Amino acid sequence: MKHIMHILMLSCLKATELIEKKIHVKLSFKERLQLRMHTMMCEKCARYQKQSAFLEKTIENLSTKHSHSANIDELKLKITKKIENLNEK
Amino acid sequence: MENKNISKWVNDFTTELYDWAYFKTSSAVTAEDLVQDTFLVAAEKIDSFNGDSSAKTWLFSILNHKIIDFYRKKSSNPITLENDNVFNFFDIDEGWKDEKAPKEWHEEDMNLLDNDDFNVVLQKCLDALPEKWSTCVKLKYLSEKGAEDICQELGITTTNFWQIVHRAKLQLRNCIENNWFNN
In a designed cystine with A27, which of A31, B79, B140, B159 is the match (CB 3.0 to 4.6 A)? Predict the structure, then answer.
């Protein structure tokens, strides 16, 4: 049964690869169809797809969060002063 | 001493250096310290800057050394990843192994985005990935360049890129499940 499923609509390994690829590029018609059929039948990969999309949101959130919270101008002043002190020594 | 150069560099590159340091360390305080140290080293070693590379490249290489040092010193409670082989996750028929198959996540909702404890676990799981993997996973949110362009800069082919992202996500998902949802 598992073998027939894999031939018709991908193995779980291939399905999860397509799930990741889909986040970055548009899949071909065949790939979309295969993936759709697989996730309709496979509860584990359907769950993976949902969790993978969720993880993308959390990573995006982490990468953008507070990334400009520091006061860059203050930091520049601080660094400039330190360098002046360094040169006076 | 070419103080004028350094002052100009502080003005021109602090923002970019800070953003990079912040992205790599996820700490505003650490990022500020690392950028400051970078310029102090640059000021001391200005004579060894020969102009073969651009000032920006030179400063980034100093910063990257500082970031590596930072991680070497920091060793608190690391989460280690299991072997990166996909067959940790899938059996020989390429179906999920029972013990590695995705389980239901009960609190999966957007409230987690603002949960500091969750973000600490996420950061640790990202840090536990091999460097190039986590960069590939994160960089599409950081850079204006396409993920593929940057991976090529990192010496990774496009085909490899999909494999790396796939493996990284498998590891990451598993790490989050073990360290957050099953805890």
Answer: A31
Task: Say how far apart CA B150 and CA B136 lie, in whole Å.
Answer: 8
Q: What is the CATH number of the domain that holds B29?
A: 1.10.1740.10
Answer yes or no: do A20 and B165 touch at CB < 8 A: yes
Q: What is the pLDDT of residues B64-91, one digit of tens each?
A: 888 877 776 655 445 555 555 788 899 9
B91 and B170, same domain (yes or no): yes
pTM over 0.80, yes/no: no
Q: Give domain status of residue B78, yes or no.
A: no
Residues B63 and B90 in one domain: no
Q: Kindly give, in sequence order, each residue whose CB lies less than 8 Å from that of residue A24, ignoring residues fewer than 6 positions away.
A: B140, B147, B148, B165
Q: Is residue B79 part of a domain?
A: no
Q: Say which of B7, B22, B118 has its CB closest to residue A67.
A: B22
| Residue of chain A minimizing CA distance to B126 | A59
Q: Which of the two residues, B114 and B177, has the higher pLDDT score?
A: B177
- Reported ipTM: 0.73
